[in-house]
Amino acid sequence: MKGYRFSKYIPSKNKSNSTFDNLLEIFMQLINMTSGNVSEALSWLTSLDKQYNLTDDSYGIGSFIQELKDKGYLKEEPGEGGRISITAKSEQYIRKSALEEIFGKLKKSKQGRHQTKLDGPGDEPNTDIREFRFGDSPDQIAMTESIKNAQIKYGAGDFMITEKDLEVFEKDYKSQTSTVLMIDISHSMILYGEDRITPAKKVAMALAELITTRYKNDTLDIIVFGDDAWRIEIRDLPYLEVGPYHTNTIAGLELALDILRRKKTANKQIFMITDGKPTCMKVGLKYYKNSFGLDSKILKKTFTIARHCRKLKIPITTFMIATDPYLRKFVREFTKINNGNAYYSDLQGLGKLVFEDFNRNRRKEF
What we know:
Blueprint: H1 19-33, H2 38-52, H3 61-70, E1 74-76, E2 84-86, H4 88-103, E3 115-131, H5 143-154, E4 167-174, E5 177-184, H6 197-214, E6 219-225, E7 229-232, H7 249-261, E8 267-274, E9 280-283, E10 286-289, H8 296-311, E11 316-320, H9 325-338, E12 341-344, H10 350-361
Parallel strand pairs: 5-6, 5-8, 8-11, 11-12
Antiparallel strand pairs: 1-2, 3-4, 6-7, 9-10
Helix pairs in contact: 1-2, 1-4, 4-6, 6-10, 7-8, 8-9
């Protein structure tokens, strides 16, 4: 009788990478999970080394730490008792790693490539050919077709070419897009033993790296929301932590709208990553809270903003990291009012959904 013998799977080390490179990948993942706490990340790395023998007698964790300093990934803060922190080089490494992990290795291309369905004096040539019109640029001229037209009309002996003989390749418009990414940092993002904030940060860093390197004419603003909402810089993402907050979705949407009002781009959109329903709003100087959620007063204000965004042609794409039936009902109604999109995702599929929706939206005008 044939059978199979199963044993514990031990993944092979990447032989193409040095010990430093292999440790660096793990260390940067830990930095993201510890919100930039170098000491805690190194402590975890040391424990992993003891358990899985990541290093050998010739190269230990101490050697790795020294090489991190020598290569500019770590720095000692002066006047803080030798406190070690990551550098801008490390922050960029984390963003690039997130981009490769979530979106795959994307080749560099020209900036601002957001194609629409409109034809006209744009930037991206296509295969359609039409007659020359005033205002067309010389680089659009289809030389073979234009010369052919002239030869048919005048012959080879008395060859000449006029404006009426010219044909041009059609071009598509490229549109610029302004995106606001909202990240929920309420306490529920780390409840029940599930770390939801780390995947959300990874997605934000990957999206930031994608836009800043490939779509340089676009804009990306990142805001976080708990009891209140505030803007953060891209460089702040690795250090982002969850707080003892409720979920003030209203404050986040209001801030996102305020940011987008100042943008001159035609295409504007809001991405919202959250795992819960609105439970908080500000009334005057005080906070009105209902931890059970789906409070009619809070919902009414949330839906009003969604309706206002629709009038301004600003779609809201909600990425809900939860699948509870009552949450689905709220998101479904919220999305219907705004005419946006909604996704219910597990943590592993979040990045792919964000990328696909961003990629889809950059091909249309809102």
